[in-house]
Each structure stands twice: as structure tokens, then as C-alpha cells.
Design goal:
Layout lengths: L2 H15 L1 E2 L1 H8 L3 H13 L4 E4 L5 E4 L12 H18 L4 H9 L20 H15 L1 E8 L5 E14 L2 E8 L4 E6 L3 E10 L6 H5 L6 E8 L4 H7 L5 E3 L5 E8 L2 H8 L5 E5 L1 H16 L3
Antiparallel strand pairs: 1-3, 2-3, 4-5, 4-8, 5-6, 6-7, 9-11, 9-12, 10-11
Helix pairs in contact: 1-5, 2-3, 4-5
Length: about 300
């Protein structure tokens, strides 16, 4: 354990346990008692109110009312750190030690104000497991292998070096270096199946230009008329300024989406309850897709 980490841990233990012997600390950190006393001296020089009591019931302690905010962070800074950790604990992992330690150091109760759940309704936990495997592979720098389905449903086997998880417009994406394409690629996590973590380690980092890249897709402006039967979807899936309600109860939707197969599938998901008002290009594409679909039932 690095010295700075050990010092932080000692302060945390003293606040939590109030008093502990140098021998107990030495055993915990696998160092000598001499090293522990040097650490205590270092903490004392940093104006942290640690004291030592000799004798049978003696030990090392810290003043009862000491909390970290008196020496380092303002009240607002403490709250920002705790709120950020509370919101991110699912993404960084289930381990709550950091959040717990800082809440004790700050002498604050942390309200459970947010929950992030990657699983679907029901018993299917595969999306959450998939996300956790990707996250762990990024942190440990292990290659992963998976089956990927593109927007046309074509299946390929990929081995990638996972570099970053990216959230955009209600969907999660994986930015990685693909060994098949020998280039950086973006994969929609929902389309990743049969994921396996490989023993192969990599050192590649996400290049600065990729970090700064906006990953913008070419957008298309759509004007849709959606029937009132779809009201339950309208307010879930569109922003208020994208919705205009007509006198007959139907809705006019003005929205921008990436111009790709996803948007065509999304429009088709409204079935008979959607009408494309513009652009004509998309009207034609959807009409062609519907005609091809009908041929499957002749």
C-alpha cells in the first residue's frame, strides 16, 4: 500500500474506531510499528489532531469531533463529492467502501438519491452482466470477444480492446479498438452478445483526438404525425418542445435523429399509428421497407 493511501486509511480507522494500538495498525498494513509511529508523526504535522495514550488501555486516537472538512474541503465540495459518488457507484462498481469512508470522514449521512439499473424488467439480468464485464475489462485492460449484430442484423465475431463506455441519446456504446477492422469502432452495447473476457492484456489508451471527438452522426429532421393511441409513448420518448397536440388528439412531432437503420426501425415501431410528413426521402424508404415486409406474407 502506498504511503498516502495508508495515511488516509489510518485517519479513517481512527474516526471509525476512535482508538487503536500501533501494533494493530502495523499488523493491518503489514509494516513495522516504527513505520506506524512515523505515519502518526506525519499526520500530526499536517494538523490532524491525533494523540497517543500509554499504558494498559492506551492506544492511538483522534479528537472526537474531528472530520475531514475542517482541514481540506468546504461543505459544498463535500456534498458534490458524495453526490457524485452516489450517482456513479453503480458505474464504478458495487463496492461502497469509498462512499462509506468519505461519508464517515465528512461526518455526513448519504441519502440514496439515485439508482442506475442496467437490467430489463423481468428476470433477464444479461444487460447488467454484459455492462459489468465490459467495465471490468476496461479497468483491467483485458481484450474481450463477442458476437455483434449491426443495424442490418448481420452477425460478426469481434475481438476488441475496450477503451470507454459512452452514453448518448438513451443508449450505451462501447468505444474500442477492433482487431478485425484494425481501427477504432463504436459498438452499441445492446447489440453485443456472448461476451467473453480474454486473458490477453493490452496497453492501448484512447487517443486524445478520440477523447475530444464528439462522435456526431449525420442527423435528419423528421416531421411525424402520431396517433393519439400512442400517447403513452409520446411523453416518454419526446421532449416537450418537440410535441404539438392537434385538435383531433393526434400529435405532430418535430425531431432530429441520426440518419441510419435505427431511425427507420424506430419509425416502423409505431406501426399503423405513424405518418411521415417529411422528408420525402424517409417516406420512400419506409414505404419500400413496408412493401418488402408485405411480400413475406404473400
Amino acid at each position: 500500500m502506498q504511503v498516502n493511501n495508508r495515511l488516509f486509511e489510518i485517519v479513517y480507522i481512527l474516526i471509525q474506531k476512535k482508538k487503536i494500538t500501533a501494533k494493530e495498525l502495523a499488523n493491518r498494513f503489514e509494516v513495522s510499528t516504527r513505520t506506524i509511529y512515523r505515519d502518526i508523526e506525519t499526520l500530526s504535522r499536517a494538523n490532524i489532531p491525533i494523540y497517543s495514550i500509554k499504558g494498559k488501555d492506551g492506544g492511538i486516537g483522534i479528537l472526537e469531533e474531528y472530520v475531514l472538512n475542517k482541514t481540506i474541503l468546504s461543505e459544498e465540495e463535500q456534498n458534490q463529492i458524495l453526490f457524485a459518488l452516489q450517482g456513479m457507484k453503480k458505474i464504478v462498481g458495487e463496492e461502497k467502501d469509498i462512499l462509506q469512508k468519505l461519508s464517515i470522514l465528512f461526518n455526513k449521512k448519504v441519502d440514496d438519491w439515485i439508482k442506475i439499473d442496467f437490467s430489463k424488467w423481468g428476470k433477464d439480468n444479461s444487460p447488467e452482466e454484459r455492462f459489468d464485464k465490459i467495465k471490468t475489462a476496461i479497468l483491467n485492460k483485458n481484450r474481450i470477444q463477442f458476437i455483434y449484430y449491426n443495424s442490418n442484423g448481420n452477425e460478426t465475431k469481434r475481438i476488441v480492446e475496450p477503451l470507454q463506455i459512452w452514453f448518448k441519446d438513451k443508449s450505451w456504446y462501447l468505444i474500442s479498438y477492433c482487431t478485425l477492422k484494425k481501427d477504432y469502432r463504436i459498438f452499441k452495447i445492446a447489440r453485443i452478445k456472448e461476451i467473453k473476457t480474454l486473458e490477453e492484456h493490452f496497453e492501448r489508451e484512447l487517443p486524445k483526438e478520440k477523447k475530444e471527438e464528439k462522435y456526431n452522426f449525420k442527423n435528419i429532421s423528421l416531421k411525424l404525425e402520431i396517433s393519439q393511441e400512442m400517447t403513452y409513448r409520446i411523453y416518454d420518448e419526446f421532449e416537450k418542445d418537440e410535441i404539438t397536440k392537434k385538435d383531433d388528439g393526434n400529435f405532430i412531432i418535430n425531431v432530429e435523429y441520426p440518419e441510419n437503420e435505427w431511425v427507420y426501425g424506430y419509425i416502423l415501431s409505431f406501426g399503423e399509428y405513424v405518418k411521415i410528413l417529411s422528408p420525402n426521402k424517409v417516406k420512400k424508404i419506409i414505404k419500400d421497407k413496408l412493401e418488402k415486409t408485405l411480400k413475406n406474407y404473400i
